Amino acid sequence: xxxxxxxxxxxxxxxxxxxxxxxxxxxxxxxxxxxxxxxxxxxxxxxxxxxxxxxxxxxxxxxxxxxxxxxxxxxxxxxxxxxxxxxxxxxxxxxxxxxxxxxxxxxxxxxxxxxxxxxxxxxxxxxxxxxxxxxxxxxxxxxxxxxxxxxxxxxxxxxxxxxxxxxxxxxxxxxxxxxxxxxxxxxxxxxxxxxxxxxxxxxxxxxxxxxxxxxxxxxxxxxxxxxxxxxxxxxxxxxxxxxxxxxxxxxxxxxxxxxxxxxxxxxxxxxxxxxxxxxxxxxxxxxxxxxxxxxxxxxxxxxxxxxxxxxxxxxxxxxxxxxxxxxxxxxxxxxxxxxxxxxxxxxxxxxxxxxxxxxxxxxxxxxxxxxxxxxxxxxxxxxxxxxxxxxxxxxxxxxxxxxxxxxxxxxxxxxxxxxxxxxxxxxxxxxxxxxxxxxxxxxxxxxxxxxxxxxxxxxxxxxxxxxxxxxxxxxxxxxxxxxxxxxxxxxxxxxxxxxxxxxxxxxxxxxxxxxxxxxxxxxxxxxxxxxxxxxxxxxxxxxxxxxxxxxxxxxxxxxxxxxxxxxxxxxxxxxxxxxxxxxxxxxxxxxxxxxxxxxxxxxxxxxxxxxxxxxxxxxxxxxxxxxxxxxxxxxxxxxxxxxxxxxxxxxxxxxxxxxxxxxxxxxxxxx
Length: 671
Known about the structure:
The protein is mostly beta strands. The strands form three sheets. It has a 26-stranded antiparallel β-barrel. Strands 1, 2, 3, 4, 5, 6, 7, 8, 9, 10, 11, 12, 13 and 14 form a 14-stranded mixed beta sheet that branches.
């Protein structure tokens, strides 16, 4: 029989011997016991026999013969079982609490209660357990670490933050890796919490075949900005100081402005690869950027200082020299009449390096007017004018000469574009077919550009190049003469998320160019054909491919494809790029032919295997590949991974790295 009582101030003592009594105290809490005594004057509760206390958050404690003082400041009891969360559990022969200090003797703590039917994944038994509510720390004296009820480690003392702590200074779980060049590497990270929005991680790495490596990662979040810095340093056995630093800061300057500061530097070209910080970047970029934007205007000013990581930079595109300044401003007006609007732009660029320099100023204006005509026809007309002013200092020109002085040029242009989207809806599918054509009128001059060192990388014909206002990457090299783009797009989609798209197009140059890159896909007159094909069912299958076909015999010149098939953690990804190189002198190999493959297999709800690799089909070898075995448990995680890099550069020869990680979790928080 159970009875419920409300505490009344006129009672001095309530005593009952019912089988179970429930009392609802002032704070939402339920106490159930064989016998409860409540002293109203002292506001103390004593229970006899089996007792269960549940608070409003669902935390539950069972104990025998308890004592609870006003507002739970002091508690005592025997044979205690305390559930602090769904899987967070503490058991003790005797527990007492004096103010903020809770002490348990012969205590067992686990965050894996009821996670597995065959036992607790891990638990810690301690001769003495102390929980400080003010410091939010749990302290274990003479603890033994158990894995599925088997003793594994003993420590004289350990402590850890309780689950209420978001950030706490302390040593994180170490990780271990091994490479064929530097031996075994043991990483010991120290996390330092400076505030809820400011912290850093210092990692000491011991290597058996090299001197120690030191790493530091700093994080700071402010209301309108964030700062991220990470770096490393080592003094190797050759007596060299090797290091790297990466920094990325974003500062919001009100509602309409933002500043970015970025820094990427390393001691030499192979350090990042040797110590595992390399992400296939060809160069490092440092500088700063300020952006100012309004409803119809945008201004960006940035500076870049580059560090080359490649063995050689001949025939590479930018960067070639440092950029300071680089300022670009764009303003688009409201409709002047109908849907007609104007766009104004300005550009300032400076490039310097190796005793040479070049500065340019560009101003351009464009007037665009779109119409929607009978039958759904869409027509867009645009006219523009651009003026360039250059100053060169010992700058190598395209013809091979060196020039210092001023040069200028004027570029009037315009285009007329037509499109007609046709829809055919049915009960199951909706189809769209849209033919599209554009003719661009542009002044013809005898030279595409002035200097060899500029911001342009030439142009490669793709489906995204068509119908663009500038087919070149950059502004220094410009289009030369009138040309037209045309193509047709077909698409179909249904209500279940399936989507199919096919596009095919071509470009035609009316004026012969002085020089045409044989690999670009452009030529005097008709260009190659370009297209794309894509399909997705929005659930487990995605595929897309872009291609270029020779205009004369439809021979394949370029193709890049990517696909994904998978569901519920099982997947296969495939990517491939092939491009015929018609000029062996540039790349030194006949073709670019690379494949990227990735796969994941979920062996169970917790075990999974993942692998990915990049394969050079032309050379017949993997450029890099990696894989691993992963286990994710509610209470801990384990991973064993390997990475293989086959790169060869200067003093660096590809390495194989094995890495092992283990960590614990408490209520979903990893340690």
